[in-house]
Design brief:
Shape: globular
CATH superfamily of the largest domain: Luciferase-like domain
Strand content: 5-15%
Strand order of the largest sheet: 13-12-11-6-5-2-1-18-14
Family: Belongs to the NtaA/SnaA/DszA monooxygenase family.
Distance between the termini: 24 Å
Number of strands: 18
Helix content: 25-40%
CATH class of the largest domain: Alpha Beta
InterPro entries: Diverse_substr_monoxygenases, Luciferase-like_dom, Luciferase-like_sf, NTA_MOA
CATH topology of the largest domain: TIM Barrel
Radius of gyration: 23 Å
Low-confidence stretches: none
Protein name: FMN-dependent oxidoreductase, nitrilotriacetate monooxygenase family
Mean pLDDT: 90
CATH architecture of the largest domain: Alpha-Beta Barrel
Keywords: Flavoprotein, FMN, Monooxygenase, Oxidoreductase
GO molecular function, one term: monooxygenase activity
Length: about 450
């Protein structure tokens, strides 16, 4: 039986409380050297791409910056353009919002990165209907859930129309006249849509990979359909085996209606890992990391997000209080809203009672991020099993340390995946589309 090839990407940790700030090895989230270290480590491991998330506003909890969150993040496309000069093969993926940008301007910035990197750019398409985030922008947070996906779909269609408006042979060279544009090779883009109107010519020719890879991260019905019609990669949250298999089957079956084949969309959940010389050592390290990621203030903030009321009087190291949620309010701003908070609260209460958990222990339990825990051999086997079982095509790995958190994985796990024959030993292509095999 032919074994599937595993695809891996590296996520620069940030935007939320994933980073363990208290570890003495934790470095800067702003110093360019941190980005260089992690990107080059991922490239040394022959990863498909390096991924930057986006935070357009710092999360707040009752007027204070959310405990343990990243409090500074440079703009992604600027960072990736700089990284293009100090890396050679790895893809460079930026999260950029379609709610608070314009198609022509963003298409031009992404195409610029694609040219500077010689075909390694990717765009993680996200949307926002959060009025709190919208306060930083003229447009504000006025779009409802369905409308923001309609805007995103029109945005991506228009960006692709701009990227494809130059014929592949548009730019030519002549010994006497130098480089020139062939007559009729640059089309005029005329678009009149619900959200955008454009008339003009794009300023850049097609890049070596045609146009940037499209990544999408939504999980709603609209998000899955948008991904099936448009995306090259899904940044999925379904990292358990059974959830992953159900999501994988659901999205892959949607491709046929858009004339697409299963290999043209890669499903890559976010995943974390903790390595140890024994499984027991890895489990102990994972528990210690989780306690560092969820401090007392963070635990209360998570609880208040579900309960919708001030819980600051309760001890995070004490039991869950016997008080019902207030479903009419939200006290944490800048997070994705929790759907059906009454059901979530009931589930949390049952879990706390079953395992006799304190508030902080409960939050650690329900927000656990460690996907793969064990020895390098065990982690390599787990990753391989997920991919061969059609629960994923690969994973976007999120280390808990900046910038050296990926080093151990590349040194100890990647060689084992290569020995299994399921991960490349080096790059065979030069563009991100070639790495992902989605062309």
């Amino acid at each position: 039986m032919i074994r599937k090839r595993i695809h891996l990407a590296a996520h620069f940790p940030g935007v939320n409380n994933a980073t363990v700030w208290s570890d003495p090895r934790s470095g800067s989230q702003i110093d360019f050297a941190s980005f260089v270290h992690l990107a080059r480590t991922a490239e040394r491991g022959a990863f498909d791409f390096f991924f930057l998330a986006e935070g357009l506003r710092l999360r707040e909890h009752k007027g204070r910056i959310h405990d343990l969150d990243v409090v500074g993040r440079p703009e992604s496309l600027t960072v990736l353009s700089a990284l293009a000069a100090v890396t050679e093969r790895i893809g460079l993926a930026a999260t950029v919002n379609t709610t608070f940008n314009e198609p022509y301007e963003l298409a031009r910035r992404l195409s610029t990165l694609d040219h500077l990197s010689e075909g390694r750019a990717a765009w993680n398409v996200v949307t926002t209907n959060d009025a709190f985030t919208g306060e930083n922008f003229r447009r504000g947070g006025y779009l409802d859930h369905a409308d923001r996906y309609r805007r995103a779909a029109e945005f991506v269609r228009l960006a692709r129309e701009l990227w494809d408006s130059w014929r592949p042979d548009a730019v030519a060279a002549d010994q006497e006249t130098g480089t020139f544009i062939r007559p009729g090779a640059v089309g005029t883009v005329e678009h009149r849509g619900t959200h955008f109107s454009i008339y003009g010519r794009f300023t850049l020719p097609r890049s070596p990979q045609g146009h940037p890879v499209i990544i999408q991260a939504g999980d709603s019905e609209e998000g899955r359909e948008f991904a099936a019609s448009t995306a090259d990669v899904i940044f999925s949250r379904h990292s358990t085996l059974e959830d992953g298999k159900a999501f994988y089957a659901d999205v892959k079956r949607r491709l046929a209606k858009y004339g697409r084949r299963p290999h043209q969309l890669k499903i890559m959940p976010s995943a974390t890992y903790v390595l140890g010389d024994t499984d027991e050592e890895a489990a102990e390290k994972a528990a210690a990391i989780r306690r560092q990621q969820v401090g007392p203030q963070t635990a209360i903030a998570f609880l208040e997000q579900v309960w919708g009321r001030d819980m600051s009087a309760y001890d995070p190291e004490g039991p869950l209080p016997d008080v019902e949620p207030d479903l009419s309010t939200d006290v944490v701003q800048g997070r994705v809203p929790i759907k059906n908070r009454a059901a979530v609260a009931a589930k949390w209460r049952a879990l706390a009672a079953e395992k006799n958990l304190t508030i902080r222990e409960l939050v650690i339990e329900v927000t656990g991020r460690q996907t793969f825990i064990g020895t390098p051999e065990s982690v390599a086997r787990q990753i391989d099993e997920h991919v061969q079982a059609d629960a994923a095509d690969g994973f976007i790995l999120v280390p808990h340390l900046t910038p050296g958190g990926l080093d151990e994985f590349v040194d100890r796990v990647v060689p084992l995946l290569q020995e299994r024959g399921v991960f490349r030993t080096g790059y065979t292509g030069s563009t991100l589309r070639e790495h992902l095999e989605v062309a």
